[in-house]
Amino acid sequence: MKLDDVHKVFNQGRPNAHAAIRGVSLTIEPNQVTCLKGASGSGKSTLLSMIGCLSRPTSGRIHLGDRMLSSLPERFLTDIRRHTFGFIFQQFNLISGLSVLENIMLPAYPLAPEYKTLKQTAHGLLGRFDLEHKAQNPVQWLSGGEAQRVAICRALINDPQILIADEPTANLDTRLSHAFMGQIRQLREIGKTILITSHDPVVFESPVVDRVIELCDGQVVGG
Ligand SMILES: Nc1ncnc2c1ncn2[C@@H]1O[C@H](COP(=O)(O)OP(=O)(O)OP(=O)(O)O)[C@@H](O)[C@H]1O
């Protein structure tokens, strides 16, 4: 992915306008783990959401291979988002009341796969992340580490090329944070491109991370 002079202004044209991203240009290499690091409010989540097609830049260009995402109409963007990206959020965002299996299968429904194949894929992921015995559990019964692994499985259900994780260790203790980086290593080994925002040293000092990009006040200041 390539970002070229990307800006994001919230509430543009109003007295409370805020320039959260100010002229970011960078390249995210495939099959690598890239960490966006920076203080709270530096613009990490804002940048991540534009990269993941969850929001659009105010100006500038974002390329995915030879496609320019920033100029695509919404329906194409939604399609690219579903096929290309898997998301892992800070609060895991699992749906309470649904089982582990149901949560994992949810992002696949808009792509209308055959149900039997989808279920097999979901069980394959549960097996890989040592969660098979929890398949029918409601997600609210899970421990923090289990919930995190369910969130990873859900992000992988559509076999995305790029995984985006926003502060993934914020709700994990040190041991589970190291375990999470072990899981990231495995995903890198199978060829995924991974982009993580974090101000947790367990993440940005991890040997699994290929590159750390530092943000300050919406600008790249290092990496
Ligand atoms: N929807 C919005 N409207 C107005 N301002 C916003 C909006 N979203 C974010 N901001 C502001 O943009 C700046 C960057 O926010 P962002 O969430 O990207 O920071 P961050 O580096 O991810 O912070 P944290 O580490 O605390 O999650 C902050 O000053 C924030 O208040």
From TrEMBL:
<dbReference type="GO" id="GO:0022857">
    <property type="term" value="F:transmembrane transporter activity"/>
</dbReference>
<dbReference type="Pfam" id="PF00005">
    <property type="entry name" value="ABC_tran"/>
</dbReference>
<feature type="domain" description="ABC transporter">
    <location>
        <begin position="1"/>
        <end position="221"/>
    </location>
</feature>
<dbReference type="InterPro" id="IPR003439">
    <property type="entry name" value="ABC_transporter-like_ATP-bd"/>
</dbReference>
<dbReference type="GO" id="GO:0005524">
    <property type="term" value="F:ATP binding"/>
</dbReference>
<dbReference type="InterPro" id="IPR027417">
    <property type="entry name" value="P-loop_NTPase"/>
</dbReference>
<dbReference type="InterPro" id="IPR003593">
    <property type="entry name" value="AAA+_ATPase"/>
</dbReference>
<protein>
    <submittedName>
        <fullName>ABC transporter ATP-binding protein</fullName>
    </submittedName>
</protein>
<dbReference type="InterPro" id="IPR017871">
    <property type="entry name" value="ABC_transporter-like_CS"/>
</dbReference>
<dbReference type="GO" id="GO:0016887">
    <property type="term" value="F:ATP hydrolysis activity"/>
</dbReference>
<dbReference type="InterPro" id="IPR015854">
    <property type="entry name" value="ABC_transpr_LolD-like"/>
</dbReference>
<keyword id="KW-0813">Transport</keyword>
<dbReference type="InterPro" id="IPR017911">
    <property type="entry name" value="MacB-like_ATP-bd"/>
</dbReference>
<keyword id="KW-0067">ATP-binding</keyword>
<dbReference type="GO" id="GO:0005886">
    <property type="term" value="C:plasma membrane"/>
</dbReference>
<keyword id="KW-0547">Nucleotide-binding</keyword>
